[in-house]
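assembly run, all chains below
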Amino acid sequence: MTIETQADVTGETVPVVVPRTRRPGWRGLLRSGKLRAGLGIVLFFALAGLIGPLFVHDPERVSDDQLFGPSAAHLLGTTNTGQDVFKLLVVSSRGSLTVGLVTGVLATLISIVIGVVGAYVGNRWDEGLSLFSNVFLVLPGLPLVILVTDYLGSRGAAMIAVIIALTSWAGPARVLRAQTMSVRGRDYVDAARVSGEPAWRIIGFEVLPNLLPIIAAQFIFAVLGGILTEAALAFLGLGGSGSWGTMLYFAQNAQALSLGAWWWFVPPGLCIAVLGAGLALINFSLDELINPRLRVPRDKANRPATAGTP
Amino acid sequence: MRYLRRKLVFYLIAVWAAVTLNFLIPKLMKGNPVDAILAKTQNMTPMSADARHALEVQFGVTHDPIWKQYLQYLGNLAHGRLGLSVSYYPAPVSKVIEQSLPWTVALVGTATILAVLIGVGLGMLAGWRRGTWPDALIPSTTFLAAIPYFWLALVLLYLFGGLLHWLPLNSGYDVDTTAIGFNGPFIGSALYHGILPALSIVVASIAGWMLGMRNMMVSTMAEDYVVTAEAKGLRPARVMLQYAARNAVLPSVAGFAISLGFVVSGSIATEIVFSYPGVGTTLVAAVSNADYPLMQGLFLVIALSVLGANFIVDLLYAVIDPRTRQAA
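ok done. output:
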């Protein structure tokens, strides 16, 4: 059993008793079924988005096979203009993944700058920046994104990703801030400061490595958030970057639902949900790495409450 | 009391930020709504200066310095004047919003409350008895949480509306046989039409609540006071509800802001799927009609509603967690 400190809901640091479980290393983590499933799913879609479009010839080609159900010739049927749904699905995966990835990287970078730097520098900077992120947190994201994309008039994938990132960094920034506050007070950070290390070096080499699992988790959430927001935007006809959301938009506009063409609108959403589940499963295992209490003890009948008592 | 004052100051700042953002975005992006309307309608014939001036006056476009415009904008807001809607011309924006807001508030409000109650309840059970059936559901919630709201709405609509014909395909009430008002048939029809939209929002948002509550429950179960309560031989139900769940639920309440933002965003596309006569449908219609005054008004109303809901939850938080009152 170990004693650790953890910030409770009021922000005070309280000691907590952590039941003895082995902290899984990165390699031990790979043995977890959830993580392997998650990584497998994400890798599959990443490959599909990366090399899939190379194998698909002319996905936009229209034909006379209009609104055919799934068959050997068209794996997932055809659209109202005779386009092959499977081909569209493969090509669209690239658009969705690109927006997700760009959003994830940008939002994570912004949240690190605002959350970590603010909390490390402290005082007025911290108060100002945390007020700033709290305000952004309570402003509803999608309506803001709709407003900005419309006024900008640009609906390209890159622009959409930037706008989504600019409206979605606040949540991660708050999480990182809380964690930085707790890391900042630790002895080795004090030691580095006393020995005269410059601030950027302490943040980069002492603080950030300890936040890595949390940053990874926030990054994954940001990617998922980016994909979902882009899908919603495209579905509303405001995105149009050739993504799964764009497919849903055309399906909705062509009355696929009342025509009973389920093969048109089910696959894109299912792809988003499965990819999202894969990302969330990775996060699930990261959570168990960060918070030892969430690790399921080997013996299922043994609840942590009793396992933790001396 | 200090807690209350701090929260009040914070929300005042947030309201100011929303209002100012709403003023600045159009100013930073494009000249003015008149230019935007002319650009969107692709008016080829050159416009006379008089006609242009008339349009500008109607939409409140002036060439005053920006601080003066800002003050004017604030003054108009204080009087509830949001300008004229372009697509519902000459109806004022406030009138259009007045008609759509109750639909969304009722739908999203009910769906959120249901999702919170069910999600937190299931999460509590899953955390309380780890390894039993509610806990086995947890990994599958990742799938539910990743489903786009509107896609789930499409699938449910296809199943229950298209294939089974159990529930209506669109709209918020039966337009042909009922009239809006406080009468039995209308309310019944509105409820009947609201089942599917509400169901899709509840199903899509429940997973987040469940997972958060379950994780906090697991953490709380290891606290000394829970062990003590068990050792004293209190009834398990009492330990679960009064000792563990009561403390574990706090972060879920505190995290309400983030979740509500998601639900509101998700419900916009959901409304489109059901052609529901709410704020989301109106917003998308305003965008496609280049109705800038209406867009601005809607954003403001959505932002203020979310802020208001969060403020109420924060007040509630002070009631359920005495530490916030003491610490402050």
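The first strand of chain A starts at residue 2 and ends at 7.

Chain A has a mean pLDDT of 78.

not gonna interpret more than that til we talk
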